[in-house]
Write a structure and sequence with these properties.
Layout (H helix, E strand, L loop, with lengths): L1 E4 L6 H14 L3 E4 L10 H8 L4 E3 L3 H7 L8 H14 L1 H8 L4 E3 L4 E4 L18 H4 L7 E3 L7 E4 L6 E4 L13 E6 L5 E6 L3 H11 L2 H12 L6
Helix pairs in contact: 3-5, 4-5, 4-8, 7-8
Length: about 230
Amino acid sequence: MLALLYDVHGNLPALEAVVADAADQGADGFLLGGDYALFGGWPAETLDLLETLPADWIRGNGERWAARPEEAPDDGVVQGAIAACREALGEERTARLATLPAGAPAGEQTRAWHASPASDVESFLPEPAEDDARLLDGVLDRRLYFGHTHLPFSRTDAATGIELVNPGSVGMPFDGNPRAAWALVHDDGSVEHRRVHYDHAAAARRLRDIGEPWSNVIATRIERATFVAG
């Protein structure tokens, strides 16, 4: 069985809870969907744990931004978090993460991306949208795994029949539920969305203890399990 872990964002306690749950469920492999360290209180420690897993990795916009800050939004929260992440990981590790592939095969007629086949920042929403056709243009796979929006859901695109699966965010859910989100792909191909309790208040305190404007914003996002502008 395959565990889908996306958008960990340096939240070590959330990742530990998910890895333990995946072991309890019998997962024997992991698909790691990007945004591993940026914005978190434990960037290096999170990567240390991820590197112990039997996993396939892809790159998220977080890895690209950390290596090339000039490609990231000119925003205090983003740039402040990038500076902290680069310092914690070091130049070599930061650069290496940015060389991960943008996508990877993840089973029969299935492929994983961070946000979509078209972009690492443009993604799908729980409800059909006008952009879906553009984001799926030329896609021949029958199922896509992706994240980026931090909203767990599964739906089938009516025009193409492609199944869209977002496991949600391990470290920073945005659906109002602060529990860590991940998904388990069973041997028969069925997808089970799972939520795991962890001490999200402690994760927020860790960020507030950093004492920077960016970290206070991210702490609020974790506390409220919703996106809060900086």
